[in-house]
Amino acid sequence: MGKPVWGTCAGLIFLANKAVGQKEGGQELVGGLDCTVHRNYFGSQIQSFEADLVVPELASKEGGPETFRGVFIRAPAVLDVGPEVEVLADYPIPSNKVLYSSSAVEIQEESAVPEEKVIVAVKQGKLLGTAFHPELTADTRWHSYFLKMASDLGEETSNAIVAVGEAASSFDPQTKYDLPIFR
Fold it and tell me: Where is the signal peptide (predicted)?
């Protein structure tokens, strides 16, 4: 429908044009993001973690610190992106971690190994994808970024989104509102 969409975690997988690590006959993808995503890249539920991510684009647009605390729960990762996709955040992975059977398996080596990075946040046009869960933190910068991104996309889209305060002032008790509110 041409509306802005933000996919977090599994939502990122649905928005990807291609996914690996899925079960045979698994969920169909919605597509739209020119990227390849690996489902459960970081492993199973027990390997869920939190990490500080360097987010220069978010900090420049929304202010605040240069980092964001990402909550990764059985999270995917973006393996590659097309030319129209902007990488907003990545996560360092020691190169002694190798992708094997949809989990990260460690190789024991005595020497120090350089870090590689996997992509964990992307934007393409009106689509935003994060491999982590910003809604599980008190930091609302990703939410603000998405709302501003959506309203910057042009007249047709910005007229479709109503600010929370505006919605409250025109509240109709007969109508149930879910955010964001589209007219």
Answer: 1-21
